[in-house]
Specification:
Elements: E1 2-10, E2 13-21, E3 30-34, H1 41-49, E4 56-58, E5 60-61, E6 64-65, E7 73-76, H2 88-95, H3 104-114, H4 130-142, E8 148-152, H5 160-177, E9 180-185, H6 188-194, E10 197-201, E11 208-213, H7 225-246, H8 252-258, H9 263-270
Parallel strand pairs: 3-9, 3-10, 7-8, 8-9
Antiparallel strand pairs: 1-2, 1-4, 5-6, 10-11
Bound molecules: adenosine-5'-triphosphate (ATP) and magnesium ion (MG).
């Protein structure tokens, strides 16, 4: 990702959402983007997916510049986006590329097993829990064996217990499939639990504020000292500009650069 920026035109005005994002994600890496609401995380992921084009800069996967969606990249959205009139196996079949003519059933069975949904092959989305529906979403995204799996807050709608269980599942799938994972989240603990590296995205415009290596052995425990230190560091990195703004002892030049009293900024502060 080289000097990527993205602006949108809204009512004659240009809103700069992302600015000058340059980074390189290694094959097989578990990479996380963390940032407040509205900082441009989904936009960034959609650009990697090829669903949005950068206004400036370029993004390449495996040396090829991205010009649109491709089977080398699978995406899991915040909401499961399953088709309600199709059952579990039909939803996964729907995601499987058309060019596979033989052995479709075996591939679908294998992926149902991978996400632990044996016995629910014939169930319809309305008959599944939130966690189960997200598992189907994962299977559907993995069924074409993508090199990169893009996860946009896939666990955001789940309760705390299911969320933690799914984090373990995602790690297991990552190991089993060797896929490069790119996860977007605003949950600091989730990022530390899962990632090899974390990029903190600032707000307005979204820039990479810090790139943090998570040098903790797996399985990670949220109560560990190292986990706690990283949590504090990430918290400071995400909220530092706002605390400076609130601190009258800081010089005006620093404060001016970060002042933003738009509703989005307030929402970001509250998160
Ligand atoms: N198609 C669009 N047209 C105009 N503005 C857009 C469009 N898509 C996103 N934006 C704006 O870009 C900004 C970033 O949006 P984005 O959805 O990427 O944020 P996010 O970090 O994913 O937020 P959240 O954590 O709430 O999901 C927002 O201010 C949003 O209004
Ligand atoms: Mg989003």
């Amino acid at each position: 990702m080289d000097q990527c920026s993205k602006s949108f035109r809204v009512d004659q005005a240009t809103v700069e959402v992302l600015r000058g994002i340059s980074l390189s994600i290694k094959p097989g890496e578990f990479f996380c983007f963390v940032g407040g609401s509205g900082c441009g995380k989904s936009t960034l992921l959609k650009m990697i997916a090829g669903l949005e084009q950068p206004t400036a800069g370029k993004i390449a996967v495996g040396g090829h510049t991205i010009s649109g969606p491709g089977l080398d990249r699978g995406m899991v959205f915040q909401e499961h986006r399953l088709l309600p009139w199709l059952n579990v196996e039909q939803n996964i079949d729907f995601g499987l590329r058309e060019s596979v003519k033989q052995g479709r059933d075996a591939i679908i069975r294998e992926h149902i097993q991978l996400v632990g949904l044996q016995g629910f092959e014939k169930a319809y989305p309305r008959q599944l829990s939130g966690g189960m529906a997200q598992r189907v979403g994962l299977a559907r995204a993995l069924v074409n064996r993508p090199e990169v799996l893009l996860l946009d807050e896939p666990l955001g709608a789940l309760d705390a217990l299911t969320r933690q269980q799914m984090q373990h599942e995602i790690l297991r799938i990552w190991r089993a499939e060797n896929t490069t994972m790119v996860l977007v989240t605003h949950d600091i603990d989730e990022a530390i639990f899962l990632a090899d590296r974390i990029a903190v995205i600032g707000n307005r415009p979204g820039e990479v504020r810090e790139l943090i290596e998570v040098d903790l052995p797996r399985p990670r425990s949220r109560g560990d000292r190292g986990f706690d230190q990283l949590r504090q560091r990430l918290w400071d990195s995400i909220f530092e500009p706002q605390s400076r703004e609130a601190d009258p002892t800081l010089d005006n030049a620093t404060t001016a650069a970060v002042t933003d009293d738009s509703p989005e900024a307030t929402e970001f502060l509250l998160k």
